[in-house]
Amino acid sequence: MMGQGQVPATQNPQPVTVAAQPHEAAPAPQSQPQVQVYGAEAYVSPDGACAAVAAGQEATGVALGMSECQLIHLAGPTNMIDIGTNERGERTVVITYPAGERAGIYRFTSGALVSIEGVPPPAKPPPRKRNQRGAPGRS
Length: 139
Hints:
Blueprint: H1 68-75, E1 81-85, E2 91-97, E3 104-109, E4 112-117
Antiparallel strand pairs: 1-2, 2-3, 3-4
């Protein structure tokens, strides 16, 4: 005999939403999100060179977790690449695109994109001085 709330093994159970009681705490997540780990073939070199991206690994947009070379293949070459190591001995890379469609500062750890920052807009040139007649003057 089946008790209340039991489903016979031959039926597909439907999801059930249960409201938590005010005195009950929500359970803590049991696992951390998985971070993609890349090998040396996904690393950009100091001069911006990358190996060919394997079939099925091509990026169609910038996303956290993508590899260094996926970004380079997507956004194009740049000469602003800083490669180092963090306090845990992990490879860190900062790739900066100062202008263009994908302008930004892209930070990688162990080959995976972990943060994206915007770059400040270029400073406006100072206004030109005008001569006494109101026409632009020569500086």
